[in-house]
Amino acid sequence: MNALLAFLLSVGGSLLSYALIAIWYVVPRLSKLPRVEALIPLILLHTFRTVGLVFLFPQVTGGALPPGFAAPAAYGDLLTAGLAGLSVFALRLRPGWALPLVWLFNLVGIADLLFAMYNGAVTGLPFFHLGVAWLLLTFYVPLLLVSHVIVFWVLLRAAPSAQAEKERGFLEQRGDPLAESGDVMTRRRFPQKDVSQSGTKQGSSNATREILPGEKREVS
Predict the structure, then answer these.
(1) Which of 10, 39, 66, 81 is most buried (most C-beta within 10 Å)?
(2) Is the Cβ–Cβ distance between 4 and 127 less than 8 Å?
(3) Which residue, 33, 37, 43, 46, is CA-closest to 88?
(4) What is the DSSP string of 128-196?
């Protein structure tokens, strides 16, 4: 099989698999979390990008890679890993500059991946002796691309509570009866007791109580 075709099939299959996992399992769960809690595991995934330094060492890859690809890819991954670590600590400490730092990390990280893909296509990277780098490019890089897209989604989406209020306000403007479904369900789950009715029922039960033998009926 042609090396380029095998490389494209591997990358395409990994991208499709990761995208389906994200759509079916990851995104539905992250959508229920606050923004900060949803971002941290996604960004931690990129702290492992120091592994991109392997492109600089022919003794690991089994042969020298094109300098136009190896150096930008390796140092770009190193920079992204550093930004990912800073972003995680910033999110944990909750300072005001955490989200701008996450935006910077995500933009730099996805730009690094896209530039590396462009350089790889220009230099004919699949035809070189890649060694372990083949697995990084076909297995790890697609995962990073999908996670970058999810990070953008988390950054741009509204908070879960704000989104619910927005949808409810929209339904109320339309006069949709679904807008009151939350209140109806609340009343069904926690019904309010009517004191007057309960008192009436108690009085009627006492009035109709069966008179036992030997017991005198009280006449009011």
Answers:
(1) 39
(2) yes
(3) 43
(4) S--TTHHHIIIIIHHHHHHHHHHHHHHHHSPPHHHHHHHHHHHHHHHT-GGGGHHHHHHHHHSPPP-HH
- Domain chopping of the chain, boundaries: 3-157, 161-191
- Mean pLDDT throughout 65-73? 91
CA distance 74 to 61: 13
CA distance linking residue 11 with residue 142, whole number of Å: 7
Any idea how long the chain is? 220
Contact residues for 103 (Cβ-Cβ < 8 A; gap 6+): 155
Residue 63 DSSP symbol: S
CA-nearest of 133, 79, 143, 142 to 107 is: 79
Q: What number is the average pLDDT over the span 9-23?
A: 96
Residues 119-142 pLDDT 10s: 998 998 888 888 888 999 999 999
